[in-house]
Structures are given as C-alpha cells and as structure tokens.
Amino acid sequence: DLNDKGGEFRAAIQLGSEFGLSLDSFLPLDKRLRWSINPGVFLSRRSLLYYDDAGHPLIELDVAEYGGELSVGREFGHHLGLFAGLNRYAGEVSINIGDPSLQSYRFEGGEFVLRGIFDRLDDRYMPSQGGYLHLEYARSMDELGADEEFEQIKFSMFEIGRATSELQSQ
After folding, report:
1. Which terminus of the chain is less hemmed in, N or C, by CB atoms within 10 Å?
2. Which helix (H) or strand (E) holds 163?
3. How far apart are CA 41 and CA 86, in angstroms?
C-alpha cells in the first residue's frame, strides 16, 4: 500500500535484445476505491521484421519509444472500470535491413483515450477461471503533440475455465 486508501505501484522490466520498462500507479481518491488517478511511464526498444510473400526479410526496423499516461477512472463495484486520460509518447525508428535510401525518423504522439474494462478473472497473474473484456477508443490530436491525427478502437476479450466448469457440472 502506498497510502491509507490502498494505492498501488507496479513495475515491470523486460531484459534482453528487446528491452522494456513500465511503471504505473493506482491512486484511489476516496476510501471506497471508486475514483482514482492512474499515472504511468514506459520505455521500450523492439525490432519489427517485415517479410515478402516468399518469406524473405524485406526490412528490419528498430523502434525506441518512451512516454507516459495520466488517466482518471471510476470503478463500479468490483468488476467494471471506466477511465479517461491522455497519452504522450515519442521515439525513433531506425532501419537495420532494407532499402539503403530509407532514413531513420523520429515520431511523436498525443492521444485522448477512453477505456472500459470488465474483469471477472479470479486472479490477476495466474487466472484459472473468469472473463476479461477491454474496450478502448483513442483519438490522436495535433493539439496534444501528435505527428498524425487518427481515431482508433481496440477491443480484446477472453474467457478462461468455462469448458472445464461446464464439464464438472454435468
């Protein structure tokens, strides 16, 4: 606990050829944990490899990126959370393999984000049953420092243990 309201701090690091570091916090604003502020920062380096139809590598890119997010959220019961926030990030893309005329370039992003999460998993790290749904809308805007404006919707969902529990109940 970071404070008397149950604030949390999380850190994750990935070592190796693809490096990553992520730090974030959950800081409740009230004793019932309904409202929270969620700041976070990240730093990463990863490679992207593109192939032609015959399976030959065409281009390999190194992407170095850093940024942060600040969101405000509202929890509804134990399973539903709605969040609104701002993301700001920047980085550089370097070409390792590919057309020698291609140049490395820098990029910047700034997004307004709305996010809904429905979480019925029985454990955060090693769930054995339950479901998880994540729906996110992002709008990249010049006013937030973005190189390009766009809108994006992300959706993910999965369920664990349903087949097992159905077999046990029959």
Report:
1. C
2. helix 162-169
3. 12
Provide mean pLDDT across the span 153-168.
Answer: 74
d(CA 161, CA 154): 24
Q: Of the candidates 21, 19, 99, which has an alpha carbon nearest to the alpha carbon of residue 62? A: 19
What percentage of residues in the chain have a pLDDT greater than 70?
95
pLDDT of 64: 96
Q: Among 30-34, 74-78, 96-100, 111-115, which stretch is predicted with the lowest mean pLDDT?
A: 96-100
CA–centroid distance for 79 within its chain: 19
The amino acid at residue 93 is V
Closest among 87, 89, 39 to 66, alpha carbons compared: 89
CA distance 108 to 92: 9
Please, which residues have CB within 8 angstroms of residue 64's CB and are 6 or more apart in sequence?
44, 45, 91, 92, 94
Residue 51, amino acid = Y
Give the pLDDT score at 100. Answer: 77
